[in-house]
Amino acid sequence: MTYVLGLTGGIASGKSTVSNYLYEQGAVIVDADVVARQVVEPGTAGLKQLADKFGTEIIVEDGSLDRGALGQIIFNDQEKRALVNDILHPLIKEEMLAQVRAAEQKDVTLVILDIPLLFESHCERFCDSVLVVEIDPQVQLERLMSRNNLTEAEAQARVDSQMDPATRHRLADFVVDNNHEPAETFKQVDQILEEILK
Ligand SMILES: CC(C)(COP(=O)(O)OP(=O)(O)OC[C@H]1O[C@@H](n2cnc3c(N)ncnc32)[C@H](O)[C@@H]1O)[C@@H](O)C(=O)NCCC(=O)NCCS
Ligand SMILES: Nc1ncnc2c1ncn2[C@@H]1O[C@H](COP(=O)(O)OP(=O)(O)OP(=O)(O)O)[C@@H](O)[C@H]1O
After folding, report:
1. How many domains does the chain have?
2. Edge-first strand listing for the sheet containing 129-134
3. What pLDDT score was predicted for residue 147?
4. Is the per-residue pLDDT at 111 higher than 90?
5. Whose Cα sits closest to atom 1 in ligand 1?
6. Is the distance from CB of 183 to CB of 14 less than 8 angstroms?
7. pLDDT surpasses 90 at 142
8. Is the Cβ–Cβ distance between 188 and 176 less than 8 Å?
9. Ligand 1 pocket, 116 CB below 6 A?
10. pLDDT class of 198 with cuts at 50, 70, 90
11. For a substitution probing ligand 1, which of 13, 15, 30, 33 has the most ligand atoms within 8 Å of its CB?
């Protein structure tokens, strides 16, 4: 039996940090951010639909997606963000579920569905349980500003484009506090693994 653990959390909360650790423990990782890049590669239906909707200003000269331009749209305009999500999320979901099915066929013990917008896109129904990574708002802003080289206002706009942490907390089966040293985070993950794989 394959156990499917959903992994989510706010932007820069530490999902990749946790999923890298789970990968080291032998889990198969299905990562929405990676799949989101695949479905907009040059020549895909995803990129064509985006260009039809938003024009060539979101395409760079070599024909690939201008991620900065799409980011400007997504993180600053709620209505346009919904349009992008309507185009991309079904494509992302389909590919992620195909990867889960492939892992199930190989009888992999643990699959991680790493999805920033897991609850927003109702993907909890594909998971046996969901782990939410949490950090304090100030730590989140600092890590996001430093990782992506953003101003505070830019980082705040990205945080505000996602579900509020209290709702995410309420929907979680497991919560991991990632405010401290990574080793502290990994100890909590170990306890969850013990519980779900016992
Ligand atoms: C906006 C884009 C171009 C920014 O690309 P960039 O390389 O700068 O960042 P990256 O892809 O690594 O995403 C960083 C984080 O942004 C947040 N984020 C991405 N898309 C969204 C969105 N539609 N709504 C809210 N937050 C989002 C997530 O927390 C994600 O982990 C890119 O994230 C994208 O194509 N988003 C649309 C697809 C999507 O919704 N992806 C989320 C996975 S379901
Ligand atoms: N416990 C920690 N202590 C210090 N820095 C951390 C810790 N966990 C993560 N970070 C750093 O914070 C940043 C965000 O972490 P990470 O990339 O894992 O978040 P994420 O949730 O996957 O982000 P995104 O939503 O953008 O995909 C990274 O620069 C990472 O190195």
Report:
1. 1
2. 28-31, 110-114, 3-9, 129-134, 174-177
3. 97
4. yes
5. 71
6. no
7. yes
8. yes
9. yes
10. confident
11. 33
Give the closest ligand to the alpha carbon of residue 29. Answer: 2
Write the CATH number for 124.
Answer: 3.40.50.300
Instruction: Answer yes or no: is the C-beta of 32 below 6 A from any ligand 2 atom.
Output: no
CB-side neighbour CA atoms (13 Å) of 11: 18
Q: Which ligand is nearest to the Cα of residue 7, counting in written order?
A: 2
Question: Nearest Cα to 122, choosing from 28, 45, 8?
Answer: 8
Those residues whose C-beta lies under 8 Å from the C-beta of residue 44, and which sit 6 or more positions away, are 38
Is the beta carbon of 86 within 6 A of some atom in ligand 2?
no
Q: pLDDT at position 129, please?
A: 98
Residue 59 banded pLDDT, cuts 50, 70, 90 = very high
**Annotation: binding site for ATP:** 12-17
Segment 30-44, tens digit of pLDDT: 999 999 999 999 999
Residue-number span of the structural domain to which 57 is assigned: 3-196
> What secondary structure letter does DSSP report for 133?
E
Q: Is residue 174 pLDDT above 90, yes or no?
A: yes
